[in-house]
Every structure is written in C-alpha cells, then in structure tokens.
Amino acid sequence: MVSSKKEPRRISALVAVLVAAAALALGLAACGGGGGGIEGGGETEAAEKVKLEGKPSGELTISNWPLYIDKKTVPDFEKASGVSVKYIEDINSNEEFFNKMQPLLGQGESGGRSIFVLADYMVTKMHKLGYLQEFDKAGLPEVEKNLVASLQHPAFDPNRDYTAPWQSGMTGVIVNKETAPNVKSVCDLFESQYKGKVDFLNEVRETVPLVMKCEGVDPNEATEADWMKAIEKIKGAADSGQIRRFTGNDYARDLTSGDAVAVIGWSGDAVQLQEDNPDLEWRMPTEGCMLWSEDMVIPIGAPNPTAAEAFMNYVYEPEVQANIAEYVNYVTPVEGVKEVLAKRDPELAKNQLIFPSASFTKNCSATPVFKSEEEEQKVIKAFDSVLNG
Amino acid sequence: MSSLRRRLSPYFLLGPGTIWLIVFFVVPLYFMAKLSLESGAVGSLEFDWNWSNYSEALSEYDTQFVRSFVYAGAATLLALVIAYPLAYAIAFKAGRWRNVMLFAVVAPFFTTYLIRTIAWETILSDESPVTEFLHAVGLAPSGHILATSWAVIAGLTYNFLPFMILPIYASLERIDVRLIEAGKDLYASAAQTFLRVTLPLSAPGVVAGTLLTFIPAAGDYVNAQFLGGAGNRMIGNVIQSLYLSQADYPSAAALSFVLMALIMIAVVIYIRFAGSEALMGEDTV
C-alpha cells in the first residue's frame, strides 16, 4: 500500500505524469487511426490483372486450409520450378480469414500471401470488393486444358477469369455404422433415439440448406422465410439437447471417441476418418447433398504473381493432382486424374466420393446465393444466435 | 543533483510499466470505446455516438451474460471448496512435502492452457470411466457430461484452481502459529480456533483468490468452446463470433465494455462486502 507520508508536490508530479501519459496515448491513437480503420477498399477501381514476368523464381507464400495437400507436391514444385514456397495452413473458416485479411486488402496489401484458397461465395464477395486479381491465362495452360467441364463456367466467374478450383466436395452425413446404422438422411438426425449424439456443422451455407432439403425445400429457390423456418428447426433441436454441439472439422474427435454417432460432415474427411475407425462412413443423404468447391485466387498486392500462377498450373498436371487427390480424398477438379489413379490404386479410382458419377449427385444442390445483402445478414445473424445458444 | 535523482527515480521505475499499460491497454481501450459507438457494416463504419449498440447488445445477449456469471460463480465456489483444505494442508500439515506439493499445484502450467482444456474432452468423454462412474451413481442422468454446463464449470474450476490455491496458501503460511496456540490456551475448541483465528487471518487470500478466479472465468471462452455443447456458450464466445464470423465490430466492442463494467460492479460490491482491508491485508496482525 501507498505509505501515508504523501507530499502534495509528489501528487502533482504524479498528475503531471498521468496527463503526459494520456496525451501520449491520444497522440498514438491519432497515429494509429489510419492503420486501424477499416476501409471499403477498391470497389471503384478496375480489377487488377496479373502481370507475368519471365520465368517463375523467388519466393511464394500460399494460405490454405489444414490437411488440404499431400506432403510431396510442395517440395516437388520447389524442385521443378526453383521457387521457394512458404505454405501456411492458416485458414480455418472463410469468414474468419476474410475478416482477418480485410484491413490489409482494403489498403491493397495481401499480407505477403500470393494465393488464398476460399469457398466460391467468399471469392465472389472478394471479387466484388476489388480484392482479387484477374489471371493472365498465358501462365495457366494446364488449367485451361485440364479443368473438368462441370466447373468451367460457374455463374460467379463464367470464364474462370480470377478463380481456379482447388478441390470440390460434398456435404452430407457421416455415420457410425455400428451405433447409427439407420441414419440415411438429414431428417434422421432429428430422431430422438440419437439425442445428444448428433453434431451439426457451424456453416450456415451448408447446415441450413441441408435442413431445408429435409423439409422438402430447394435451397436455391428458398425465400427468407424458408431460411428462418429451417433455422428455427435447428434451434429447436439445439435447445432440446438433440444436437450435441456445433462443430467445424472437430466433429472428427466426437466421431472417433464415440461421443457422436452421426454428424453433418464433409466427404473427404470420412475417407480419412475410416483409417481410424472403419465403422465410420459418409452417406449421401436421401434428400441429396450440398456441393461446394474452393478456389485458388490471387489477392491484390500479391508478391510474385508469376510464381503463383506457376504453382496453380503445376497442381493441374494430372500426375501431381493425383498425389493430392490420393491424400485429401475430395472431389478433384482435374481431368485425367482418374486414369492416373486407376493405374496406382484401382479401388480409389472407383470411389464415388472422389469421382462421383452424375447419378450419384443428382439430388445435390449448389451452395445457395443470397438474394440481397440484407437477407444474407439477417440469416447469418439468426444462425449465429443459434450457435451462441 | 542527487536529490533530484532520488525524486525522479520512482518515475523511472514506473516508466516501463506505464508505457506498457498505455500502449497495450489505454490505446486499445480508446479504440474499442470509439468502435463501440460506431454504426454501419465493416468497410463503411462511421462514428456517430451510436449508443444503441449497448442497449441491443444487452437485450440480445442477456442470456449469455447471466450464463457466464453463473458458470464463473459456480467455478469460483467449487475452486474455493477444493482449494482451501488443500492450501491448509500444504501450509500446516505437509511438513517436508510442502515444496513438492506446491510444485504439483504449479506443474500443470508447464503445459499450455489449451492442451489442458482439450485433455478434459477425453477425461469427460461419454465412454470414459469418469462419465460411466458418474452415470452409475446417478450424477449424469443424460448419459453425458461433455457438452453440458457441468463440463464447462468443471473445466473452469480446474483451469483456475491454482489461482485460488496460491493466494490462500500465501496468507495461511504467513499466520503466526502462536496466535493459534493462544486460542487453544484460552480453551477454544479446534473449530472455534479455526473460525475465530485462522479463517479471518486467511481472508485476504480468500478474497484475492476468488477475484483471480472469478474475473478470468467470467470472460473465458475456451472452456465453453471445447467442453460445452449447443446452449453452453458464454459471453466470450459471443464476442469472438461477433468479431470474427459476423464482423460486427461495434456490437462486439460494446459487449466487451458491458462485460468489463459488469465485472467491475461485481468486484466493487464484493470488496465492499468483504472489506478492502481483507484484500489488502492491512490489519492481518
């Protein structure tokens, strides 16, 4: 404690120090104002375009999701191209990554990164904000040649001017065959016998549309009322304890420990989970699945776009892509991989989760697009309030 | 010259701490205050004294506020019940094992907080012996502990327990045993001596320990994230999701201020009630 011998002079000196400190703080605050603010960014600017400069060299930084590439591709690319790659797995959620990067992107910087891998809807949003560069297709001959037909002309980027798919996949149900043999649809997840043993994904664009499909609503024709009704149904199941918890990839833990017997989950994960527990399998819900893809993009301000395009081009070589497909087990966007894998591992080449046939995915829906920003915000807010219980 | 130096030296000593506090507390606090009064979406935030961020934050997330305080309160109480006898044993009964026991209290800190919390996922997992035992004796009627309030409270209690034990131990250890002997000499029973002598003398440790446990526990979000389920989110989780997934910075900032204010009010009331002398240990002897 402060001693009782307080001299007035000392107090005034203390006050002076505090005033000085406050002034300094305000000064710093004023300096920081520019950097800390969040700017809308280049909405009005014309889209930047990649300028290729000779042979790829130098350094390249790539941001991707965890466990989304095999161990060979990056070192092989480094050897083949002479580019040194910093590959960071720092994307865990589209929203979180976007919100982390936006202050930089708003100022035309990419945080040193030259490639991001993000979902279709997120790259669409970033493109609208002027945060992405258009490709110079002269650097992407393999992409031009090998991109599968079904992904060549998506509505958000009809000519693939600024996106190249990394992997596609399906969202459906992952079940434990032993403990939940009868779960065949999203509707089945609401059965009371699985109370407290079911996880739902915390992704609004996947979980809510799947529940809509259970209700018989086509997510791509859904009105705001349909969204809200599905969210209400999920809320009811969360409040009653039917849904154990909302997860991302961490449903894997609940499934392997037996805490969950059925979850809404991604197709590629199931193949990897089977190695831990052969009873786990991904099932195509009777209502159909959600189809999504994630794209490589080059952000504005990206250093070394030449090397970035070289890498994108490299992973579109069927031999290289086969290594990735073998490891991640998602739906590959590259033509010719099936033939490569058929020689290496015929079983894998027949796997519907990696090479789904048209009839297998006939009831599946694409990630829905919101009709307006207001609707999007309302829906996200409603879903988040369910997540936050 | 030397007198000037002597007069200035306290400020030099305060310097590093003050600068630290300004750069990493005052400045961020100023930004947060400003942010909490802005309106609009990210990209077009405008400062316009938008106080409705506060009223909306409070009315929309009152459940999570109440929940956070209930969880933190329960964890603090549990930690006190566990910590006091333990600290007492270490201070008075441990003998030469005292240092070993103190080390055992601190040892978990050698592992990161996150890993320790995730370890509890395994401990409380549905098919773990702990859960099966609790189920068998009727303490887990739904068959699971993980992903319920109880798991969150257990995690909070475990994680903040050392912050309760150490201050209580420190105040017990300082007690002059002659005072306890005097109590016995004056024909007080063991219980009376404890209640009239030991307990009041250890009050500063109890007050400090409860504050060190309650304050971080109320703002915690890691335990609810890993050990909680649907419907167990605390206010920290809401703030995190507002910042990172909804990008609603103003509401998140407003919530943070409300949380800070509520904790401060709770602490002030508590100290009034417990007596600030108890906290500061002014009249321990």
Helix content of chain A: 25-40%
Poorly predicted ranges of chain B (pLDDT <50, ≥5 residues)? none
CATH topology of the domain at 169-291 and 365-387 in chain A: D-Maltodextrin-Binding Protein, domain 2
User: By CATH's scheme, which homologous superfamily of the domain at 169-291 and 365-387 in chain A applies?
Assistant: Periplasmic binding protein-like II
Strand arrangement, major sheet of chain B: 1-2
Please give the CATH architecture of chain B: Orthogonal Bundle
* Largest interface by Cβ-Cβ < 8 Å: A-B, 47 and 46 residues
Q: What gross morphology of chain A would you assign?
A: globular
Fold topology:
The complex is a heterodimer of chains A (389) and B (285).
Chain A lengths: L7 H29 L22 E5 L9 H9 L2 E5 L5 H12 L9 E5 H9 L12 H6 L17 E13 L21 E4 L2 H11 L9 H16 L3 E5 L3 H7 L4 E5 H7 L6 E4 L6 E8 L7 H11 L2 H11 L8 H8 L1 H4 L15 E2 L6 H15 L2
Parallel strand pairs in A: 1-2, 1-3, 5-6, 5-7, 9-10
Antiparallel strand pairs in A: 3-9, 4-7, 4-8, 4-9
Chain B lengths: L1 H35 L1 E2 L6 E2 L4 H9 L1 H32 L4 H9 L6 H11 L5 H8 L12 H25 L3 H9 L4 H30 L2 H6 L7 H10 L4 H26 L1 H5 L5
Antiparallel strand pairs in B: 1-2
Please provide a brief summary of the model.
The complex is a heterodimer of chains A (389) and B (285). Chain A is α/β, with parallel strands linked by helices.
Could you walk me through the main structural features you see in this protein, from its secondary elements to its overall organization?
The complex is a heterodimer of chains A (389) and B (285). By secondary structure, chain A is α/β, with parallel strands linked by helices. Among the domains of chain A are: 123 residues, Periplasmic binding protein-like II (D-Maltodextrin-Binding Protein, domain 2, 3-Layer(aba) Sandwich); 146 residues, Periplasmic binding protein-like II (D-Maltodextrin-Binding Protein, domain 2). In chain A, 40% of the residues lie in helices and 14% in strands. Chain A is built from 14 helices and 10 strands. In chain A, strands 1, 2, 3, 4, 5, 6, 7, 8, 9 and 10 form a 10-stranded mixed beta sheet that branches. In chain A, helix 2 links the parallel strand 1 and strand 2. Chain A is globular. In chain B, 75% of the residues lie in helices and 1% in strands. Chain B is globular. Chain B is built from 13 helices and 2 strands, in the order αββαααααααααααα. Chain B has a two-stranded antiparallel sheet. Chain B is an all-alpha fold and 285 residues long. Chain B has a single domain, classed as MetI-like fold, CATH 1.10.3720. The model of chain B has no long low-confidence stretch (mean pLDDT 90).
